[in-house]
């Protein structure tokens, strides 16, 4: 039986960075499910379909293929109609697109089997918003990772600046707060801790401390 660890939480809580390092330590595969919603967001954006144009997005779903693959470094690659779009999906614009399209129930259904199949065939640490509640309700360990909005915005801001992007802190904070609201107030699979999840707040922890804390929780519950 494969082991699944679910990590959910709001944007910028450090899920991906922490989960990636923890997966390496445990020799699990790390699956970033946000990338799937981002790929659909990117496809809508490229085709001139508004992120809230439900009909347009539903039509789009009939024409696209979203897949996950892993490169030689065991890093996730997301394929949109066979094209590696892994780095193109990491812009603030596509973040907001992803948040909007993720509220559409058919988009969530479209991606469900793909996510579950990853966990059927591998030991996974999967991060997202609804992994512990919907995608993998039987996950062995469920962690809800969070931090204050300001701390999360600062982390995201530093990341974007490091990538050479021209962004303002207030805009990043505003994006974080808006996405939190969208993600936790949608009707289908809203962001919320599973009843049996372990809550971890990383506001006062640096990366190393956060990773250590998660790994110790995982080892304790495995
Ligand atoms: O984790 P992320 O920031 O890359 O996710 C982008 C958007 O995708 C996020 O705002 C909400 C959505 N998402 C989701 O609804 N469910 C998931 N399991 C993962 C992401």
For this entry, give a set of tags.
222 residues, alpha/beta, five-stranded parallel beta sheet, three-stranded antiparallel beta sheet, 9 helices, globular, binds 2'-deoxycytidine-5'-monophosphate
Describe what you observe in this structure.
By secondary structure, the protein is of the alpha/beta class. The protein is 50% helix and 16% strand. It has helices at residues 15-26, 34-46, 54-61, 92-101, 105-121, 131-135, 149-162, 169-185, 207-221; strands at residues 4-8, 29-32, 66-70, 76-80, 83-84, 124-128, 141-146, 198-201. The chain has a 5-stranded parallel sheet with strand order 2-6-1-7-8, with helices on both faces. A hairpin with a 5-residue loop joins strand 3 and strand 4. Helix 1 (15-26) packs across helix 9. The model has no long low-confidence stretch (mean pLDDT 95). 2'-deoxycytidine-5'-monophosphate (DC) is lined by residues 11, 33-34, 37-38, 95, 98-99, 102, 128-131, 179, 183.
């Amino acid at each position: 039986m494969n082991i699944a660890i679910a990590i959910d939480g709001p944007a910028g809580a450090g899920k991906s960075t922490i989960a990636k390092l923890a997966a390496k330590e445990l020799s699990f595969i790390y699956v970033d499910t946000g990338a799937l919603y981002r790929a659909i967001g990117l496809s809508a954006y490229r085709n001139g379909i508004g992120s809230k144009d439900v009909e347009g997005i539903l039509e789009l779903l009939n024409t696209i293929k979203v897949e996950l693959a892993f490169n030689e470094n065991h890093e996730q690659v997301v394929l949109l109609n066979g094209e590696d779009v892994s780095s193109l999906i990491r812009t603030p614009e596509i973040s907001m697109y992803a948040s909007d399209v993720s509220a559409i129930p058919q988009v969530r259904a479209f991606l469900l089997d793909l996510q579950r199949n990853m966990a059927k065939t591998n030991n996974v640490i999967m991060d997202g918003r609804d992994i512990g509640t919907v995608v993998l309700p039987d996950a062995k360990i469920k962690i809800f990772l969070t931090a204050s909005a300001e701390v999360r915005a600062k982390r995201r801001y530093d990341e974007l600046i490091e990538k050479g992007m021209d962004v303002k802190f207030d805009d990043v904070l505003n994006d974080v707060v808006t996405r939190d609201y969208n993600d936790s107030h949608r009707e289908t699979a809203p962001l919320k801790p599973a009843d049996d999840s372990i809550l971890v707040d990383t506001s006062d922890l640096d990366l190393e401390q956060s990773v250590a804390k998660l790994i110790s929780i995982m080892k304790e519950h495995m």
